[in-house]
Amino acid sequence: MATKPNILVILIDDLRYDEFGAGGHPYMKTPNIDRIANEGMLFERAFHTTPICSPNRASILTGQYASRHGIIDNVARDQASHRLPNYHLELQRLGYETAHIGKWHMGNDGKPRPGYDYWVAYDGHGRLNDPRLNENGTYVQRQGYITDIMNEMAVEFLNRKHAKPWSLFFAHKAVHPDAEQAADGTFKMDGYVVAERHKDLYRNCVFPKKPNMLPEAEIVKQKPAWAEALELKKSKESRALLDAIHAGEQEEIRLRAAMMASVDEGVGMLFDALEAKGELDNTIIFFLGDNGYFFGEHGLGPERRFAYEEGIRAPFTVRYPRRIKAGSRSKNLVLCQDIAPTLIQLAGGKPGQHVQGRSLLPLFSGKRGGWRKSILLEYWAENAYPWLVGMTYKSVRTERHKYIHWVNRSRNGELDELYDLDKDPYEITNVNKRPAYRAVRARLQRELRKLTADALGL
Ligand SMILES: [Ca+2]
Fold first, then answer.
1. How far is the centre of ligand 1, averaged over its atoms, from the C-alpha of 11 (Å)?
2. Disulfide check for 66: which of 55, 169, 331, 399 has CB 3.0–4.6 Å away?
3. How many angstroms is it from 257 CA to the middle of ligand 1?
4. CA-to-CA separations, 418 to 183, 333, 337, 398, 404, in angstroms, rounded
């Protein structure tokens, strides 16, 4: 029997699909992360189905939709987060040594969760400088920049003597700004912090304007469901949150890119450690984000959670030379939920019926047929931002179209949105009411009803 691979999942907080070198960022340099893509497979259509922190982290770890695992928002659902059917529980049964290092943020407590032999996390969002960490159940105050501390801890774990194959879930706090989140999901924003050595990196670099960065009046003509939210966004209370992170400015994009420099150094350190041990090609490495982000597209910034491409598309790349040819690309519709079943299968197990994602192994070997043709996106309105009121949606995306149903915004879906992504990749023109799209809309509505019911699970 072949040796079971080691497993390394690297998760970046809030990283957009295009926020690393190989993902197409115009100036950010991430040679080590790019190495994962260049020597592995880059998924160009990978998605988060509930694109905010806690729900999607739970989806990655369980392979389930938020409808099923129940972590539907960032409210402190601590108890639920202690009993997730996490894939690490299955890996332990399959003979793995398991570790979590970094952000957990499903529930605000940073104490160990079931499924891990080694545990490092922190309460809530943690702090970018001098974090207070929970290491195997004990809180310790550490000095320094969190990304550097996490990189060292991850390398230290890899360098240990391991009697078994291991699985490390390595979840950075970067590129999230400092924020304090209360139990009810409301929060106070403090801002981005860059490592001192990177603080001037990328000064004067420009992220080019995209066609969907439009004035508010243009946006609400096509997206009438947004009229109230975009109006409320101008209030003093809203501006205080947005100004703390330079929302909508080049400086925000630059600060995040500079934060990624420390992350990329860490990926380089992990490569070095694996190569030194002769374990690199015996390790599957996943690299992804937990949700997207907006740089002004559709009038949005840190709202993340919405179904437009910048919110739902994941940076998603995998290196595993035993199964994946270097430099591969995939356009199949994949989900973060597909990671858990892939890893369970690679570890020699069989994903249980409760797992809703699908193993990516056929795609690794270049197979394209028989794959899903549509995905569900789901979001439950919460109170993190004072300008977002009642914006619950259910949405379906196929290879060509996207339909967004605003659950609480209109009686008969008259404020809903429909985009033809082939003709309109920037989602500027809402064709929901166009007679030419009547049949498409009816088909998407049927598909959405089916996916919504399926997501609840067995
Ligand atoms: Ca996040």
1. 10
2. 55
3. 16
4. 35, 19, 25, 11, 6
Residues with CB under 5 A from ligand 1 (ion): 13-14, 53, 290-291
What's the confidence (pLDDT) of residue 28? 98
All domains of the chain, ordered by start, with CATH? 6-374 (3.40.720.10), 376-456 (3.30.1120.10)
DSSP assignments along 224-293, one per residue: GGGHHHHHHTTSHHHHHHHHTTTTTSHHHHHHHHHHHHHHHHHHHHHHHHHHHTT-GGGEEEEEEESS--
pLDDT at 161: 96
Distance 196 CA to ligand 1 centre (A): 23
**Measured in angstroms, how far is the CA atom of residue 305 from the centroid of ligand 1?**
9
Q: What is the pLDDT of residue 2?
A: 60
Identify the segments of the chain with pLDDT beneath 70: 1-2
User: What's the alpha-carbon Rg for the chain, to the nearest Å?
Assistant: 21
CA of 36 to the centre of ligand 1 (A): 22
**Distance (Å) from CA 125 to ligand 1 centroid:** 9
pLDDT at 316: 98
Q: How many CB atoms lie within 10 A of CB 350?
A: 11
